[in-house]
């Protein structure tokens, strides 16, 4: 653990297309799935629109010009009450920068954004066996054990 963190947290805006692409590459490396995150990236106009949306949040941890951590989240308006939830879709830290508070710092920034956007909860899922993620999320929140199902679109009877 370093006395002074060697990273800065940045909430990405529509002007930060390069940083978003750096975040995508970092996700690909961290998740060992570079093709998914880099092979068919959207064009600049798509990313600009996404980063301009109030329903999407991208937070990068940067060390100099390099993106060393990333968090992508979605703001979900609820229907049963006038409130919102924030779902952390992806969160990763580059291997050499782990265990330095990067993920915690990104989540703390997200917590402030969530309050400003009227969210009452932030939620995230972790895979069984991903012990570092489970430990991080347990430190920051309350654990719920649920089942997750992927349902392919377009195969229904209606």
Discrete helix count: 5
Q: Residue share in helices? A: 25-40%
Largest pleated sheet: 5 strands, mixed
CATH homologous superfamily annotation: Gcn5-related N-acetyltransferase (GNAT)
Strand content: 25-35%
Q: Widest sheet: strand order?
A: 1-2-3-4-5
CATH architecture: 3-Layer(aba) Sandwich
Shape call: globular
| Total E-strand runs | 5
Gyration radius (Cα, Å) is: 16 Å
Count of the domains: 1
CATH-defined topology: Aminopeptidase
* Helix and strand run: EHHHEEEHEH
- Tell me the structural class: alpha+beta
On the 0 to 100 scale, the average pLDDT is 87
Task: Explain what this protein looks like in three dimensions.
This protein is α+β, with helices and mostly antiparallel strands and 158 residues long. The protein has one domain (8-140): Aminopeptidase (3-Layer(aba) Sandwich), CATH 3.40.630. Helix content is 34%, strand content 25%. It has 5 helices and 5 strands; from the N terminus they run βαααβββαβα. The protein has helices at 17-30, 34-38, 44-52, 102-116, 131-140, and strands spanning 8-11, 56-63, 66-77, 84-93, 119-124. A 5-stranded mixed β-sheet has the order 1-2-3-4-5, sandwiched between helices. β4 (84-93), α4 (102-116) and β5 form a beta-alpha-beta unit. The chain is globular. 24% of the residues are buried. The mean pLDDT is 87.
Features:
158 residues, 34% helix, 5-stranded mixed β-sheet
Concise structural overview:
With about 160 residues, the protein is of the alpha+beta class. The chain contains five helices and five strands; from the N terminus they run E-H-H-H-E-E-E-H-E-H.
């Amino acid at each position: 653990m370093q006395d002074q963190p060697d990273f800065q947290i940045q909430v990405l805006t529509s002007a930060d297309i390069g940083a978003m692409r750096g975040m995508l590459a970092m996700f690909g490396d961290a998740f060992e799935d570079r093709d998914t995150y880099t092979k068919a990236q959207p064009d600049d106009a798509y990313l600009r629109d996404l980063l301009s949306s109030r329903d999407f949040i991208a937070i990068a941890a940067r060390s100099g010009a390099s993106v060393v951590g990333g968090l992508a989240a979605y703001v979900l308006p609820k229907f049963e009450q006038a409130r919102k939830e924030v779902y952390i879709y992806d969160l990763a830290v580059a291997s050499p920068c782990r265990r330095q508070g990067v993920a915690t710092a990104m989540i703390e920034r997200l917590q402030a954004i969530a309050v400003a956007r009227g969210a009452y909860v932030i939620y995230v899922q972790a895979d069984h066996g991903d012990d570092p993620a489970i430990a991080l999320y347990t430190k920051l929140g309350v654990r719920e054990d649920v089942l997750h199902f992927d349902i392919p679109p377009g195969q229904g009877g209606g």
